[in-house]
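User: Second chain of the day. Same drill as before.
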Amino acid sequence: MIMKHIKRIALLSLSLVMALSIISTSFFTSSVSAKTKANCDYNFYAQQDFGEFSDPCDSATCSTSTDKNVTINSDNKDYAGDTILSEAELKGIKENQSVYEEAAKEADMPWQAIAVIHLRETRLSKTNPANGQGIYQDYAKLNGPYPAGKVDDKEFLRQTIWAAKFLKAKATNPELFAKGDAGQVKDAFFGYNGRAGVYIDQAKALGFDEGYEGSPYVVNKIDKKRDPEENPTKWGQIKADGGSLVYPANSDHGAYVIYASLAGLKSNDCESTLSGTLNENIVKLAEAELKLWKDGELSPGNKGTESKPAYDFQKYTYDQQGDWCAWFVSYILKGAGKPVDSSDTPDWPSVGTFLNESSKLGFEVHEKGDSYKPKPGDFAIYGNHTHINIVTGYDKDGKMLTIGGNQGSTPYSNSSVTENIGYGESATYYVEVK
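Assistant: Same format as last time:
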């Protein structure tokens, strides 16, 4: 599809009457997934300011894999501790939440994603701007006409449902996007905005494989590399139709950073926003996963629906099946901000890898009996590299507490995340995390 470079008509000034009362963001917490792999070759200019629908890459096919249900409560802060959404923006989103949810149910997608598009495109307005593209900036006017002026509730819902379906179709894997897969959410935002080749190049220059990682529309201020104040000469943005990168990028937060805040995620997939040391964060996340299993939200051998993997443990294994104790530790490390490798699916699926490669992460391996006392957040390795779990502390009697995946039953498909008391003393090696 070849689309003409239509000169953008500036949006009319939009006014929103919003109360500035302090509200809680707890209603935004949900379970969402982590990364996906998508290596696609796009080369197109972006309509950066408004994110119009001008993407010629709708039918791209990419390999994908995912893990699921990472739940970390957002404090509405970015990586630097700056506020992401104002009180007025949070209030406006909450007022519209029932509409977003209805549209999301119709489209089968996370409601927070369409809320982000509404915020990014017309600042939560319910008024069609004079450019004839509607509330969600339907650049090609596929769902028009959009006569200028305020819209009623019925029309607002109609436009929201259409935009939700359109956004979902922009993901290279809509099924994973529907599950809230972080990589596919980023990919959909990237497609919505127009997959500019210069952003793909910018991503590669910063060490990322996926084009969306180089788009300020998607990931602006997600980390130090992609913060225009911190990296003003290497983090640029297209600021005119068909133009080149201009440095630095704009100062607004990227769509995925906003989405992550609404969805209760840490905004950066590689650097945790959990407070505390690496060891403390490992323990917190391991205990959180244990609670999910204890509460019955995950269960051994639970055959899933279309929205869940075949077995609940597959959230740790990127939908693969097999012994998964090492995968579980990889999953926890990624969530704690120390992924085992730089891929989109960072995993060391074998126990032996943790023993042989931990030094690459700055960790140290101790043999049992060398006087090292494991601390919470360290790993215990058993037998001839047969099992690994996480040391979480000691009980009142001084017995080691451990939490691990693929424990408690055989075969692996019937095992679970389980806590043990004293089992850690039988380890043959301990991996010191530091």
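The CA atoms of residues 274 and 281 lie 7 Å apart.

User: Great, on to the next one.
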